[in-house]
Amino acid sequence: MSPDDRPDRTHDAKHVPGGNAVLTIVYRFEFDDGPASEFRIDLDAKTLELIAALIPALRDSELPDWIRLENAQCPNCPLHASESPRCPIAVSLVDIVDFFASHRGHDEALVSARTPARTVTKRCSLQVGISSLMGLIFPASGCPIVAPLRPLLRSHLPFATSHETIPRVAGWYLLQQFHNKQAGRAADWDLTGLQDLFENIGVMNANLPKRLDEPKVEDASRNAVIHLRTFAELFAVSVSEESMQDVIESLFDPEFGSSD
After folding, report:
1. Which of 10, 105, 94 is nearest to 51 (CA)?
2. Model pTM?
């Protein structure tokens, strides 16, 4: 069943605890040889949490085994099955994995991401489009490993490259440290915490494909996860002291990289 055929899961403010507004972002995949499909992501505009997972509420007896927390649980996951029987990220991926089950990662589509501020459209491989969608869903899913990136969802940048994301995330982190200093808390100006964060995300991304070994899927969803893993590893390296200096010089020194 495609996302378009599933029951309507949209929400308005009266359905959100506390009456918070809703931030909606829609990813649309247009295929050359089939109908277009949309994935609508509704976030609580205050907390930036998914208002509802991308699957209907299911009784425990109906849960696919691959979304159970203890099935290929990440080695650095702090959750316990007694309190959280489902992996938050796996739950949010059910519709995606189901829909792209017969697609290959290198298949192309016209992918658009519609946010309240703008619509960004790109013709790209499915693994690039899906990884951009996953980059939106993962921090909002409830996974504690990637939850620290949730504030960035308010300015979600679809199809972002590493050259765009590294200064964007580093800038957000440094603003957070400035806020900590103003509030009298310790500030991490060396970006040690940011490097630790992306190393942890890298472990999570490396482990996630093990869950996808059970569903009968082609490589589109799995390759998208690998794409994210590679990016997390790159970012962890980039925020090291030496690499970050290169990033800073490339941004602000016009002579950097010159052959003269």
Report:
1. 10
2. 0.79
